[in-house]
User: Fold this.
Amino acid sequence: MRNHRNTRGDSERLTFVHGNGVAGPAAWPQQLDAFPASGFLTMPGFGEDEEPVVDFSIWIDRIVDDLDERAVLVAHSYGGIAAVLAAGKARDRITELVLIEPALHALKGTGQAVADDIERLAPVLENARERDLEEFWQEFFPAVIGAPAPPLSSPQARRQARRAQALPPSWSFDLPDDVFDAVSTTIVTSGDNPVYEDIAATLLRRDANHVLIPDHGHRPQDSPTFTQLLLKILER
Assistant:
């Protein structure tokens, strides 16, 4: 599966990048109708019946290929890593980065909450690709989600687990630190998780905007407030 491109509008202004969970247009139910001319990407390995992709550079290339000459790049969670790396390659085409609780553990200057999260997750993700899938899933899901792992009782469930197993740890990336000096950045958090608040505070010191949207957990984009925020960004 490639990308979903709704062509009802006159121009494409936004590109949406999902995280390591719900993929493609389904990841953005509140934005599909609000921004009909946008690109709602499906990252490599997340299409129906696609096998996981280990080479993360393919994610970055897909984003860059989709960008208009003047694009607002919107990314959620793990997709925030790909968005920042894509901005490093195409910063002249991005007018705004909108990062929703991004997994930027590799960001320079973060604090204790991020350090503690890396220490907690590192044993789970160490040599993840070489581990038994069931064993990995039973440790990974509770560590990340905070709930017992659902059984891998379907091809779709096993594919989801293999995707989590294949992707590099979020702290292993070399992020282009100067992107935040060159591209206007807005970070959106819910206030629930100290890790994302730590990342937000670090970006605030780089002159990013921080918008708090409570009551939607790790998906502030499901709030109408987030859609209103994007409309305001487009009006600038």
